[in-house]
Amino acid sequence: MSLTSVSSRSRSSHIMLETIQRNGGQVTIDIDVLSETGRKSSLSQQTYFELRRRIILGRYPQGSRLAEQRLAEELEVSRVPLREAVPQLEMDGFVQTFPRRGAVVTSWDEKRVNDLFDLRLCIEVGAARYAARQVAAGASMKPLTDALSHSQNVVHSGDLFEVAQASTWYHEAVVDLAGNRLMKTMMRSVTGQMLWLFYLTSRLDADDAFDDHVNLRDAIASGNERVAEAVAYTHIERDRIPSFSALEVPYTSAPAPDDSDGVEH
């Protein structure tokens, strides 16, 4: 995939000046002044998402070193967007950087899997409770219903990345419905890792996961906070030990207590 082709299309459609209506008047914006910064930011983001996708799909295996020059050649970008994308990848848990070695793809082990599940319990169980409270107070279920419909559309598509994305979006929708900004911020910090783990464990029964999502939707729709949090807890915890089997990672410790190509090897 060439990222420069996307950037080139943006340049070809570039408009020097744009006039928009605002509050009954006209505001003229010099798009040319803003475009260069926007292009750089856009290319860095495209680079980030493409690198993240390749890591998730295993194109760049866990423990492998990301060689900057080869990545630049593969993606047909300069080293600047790569160097801007790597810190975000590190912040989101996809790579770790080392002096003189550069960026290395992180690996999944028992502690990392448990840490993610434990954090999800902390965020999502409470989010389900608050989402039920919001619905009981009149909040719309549409965003959650739309996310569930999308999951249903892709569950048998054969595209495991799409299935993993749909599952991630559904869990994000639950947190969004809770209406707690701090929860949303915390959730955004781990959705990339959730997407990665969902993809890696795609051998688990997608139908069972979808049924769990339906049950959680129904529990939230009922407005019963305790039922919603119990269903959320059961859904998340049910996948913990099977995830270790799917990843072929040894599982030795007890679950959390219930207390409510450009690569070098």
UniProtKB/TrEMBL annotation:
<feature type="domain" description="HTH gntR-type">
    <location>
        <begin position="41"/>
        <end position="108"/>
    </location>
</feature>
<dbReference type="InterPro" id="IPR000524">
    <property type="entry name" value="Tscrpt_reg_HTH_GntR"/>
</dbReference>
<dbReference type="GO" id="GO:0003677">
    <property type="term" value="F:DNA binding"/>
</dbReference>
<protein>
    <recommendedName>
        <fullName>HTH gntR-type domain-containing protein</fullName>
    </recommendedName>
</protein>
<dbReference type="InterPro" id="IPR036388">
    <property type="entry name" value="WH-like_DNA-bd_sf"/>
</dbReference>
<dbReference type="InterPro" id="IPR008920">
    <property type="entry name" value="TF_FadR/GntR_C"/>
</dbReference>
<keyword id="KW-0238">DNA-binding</keyword>
<keyword id="KW-0804">Transcription</keyword>
<dbReference type="Pfam" id="PF00392">
    <property type="entry name" value="GntR"/>
</dbReference>
<dbReference type="GO" id="GO:0003700">
    <property type="term" value="F:DNA-binding transcription factor activity"/>
</dbReference>
<dbReference type="InterPro" id="IPR011711">
    <property type="entry name" value="GntR_C"/>
</dbReference>
<dbReference type="InterPro" id="IPR036390">
    <property type="entry name" value="WH_DNA-bd_sf"/>
</dbReference>
<dbReference type="Pfam" id="PF07729">
    <property type="entry name" value="FCD"/>
</dbReference>
<keyword id="KW-0805">Transcription regulation</keyword>
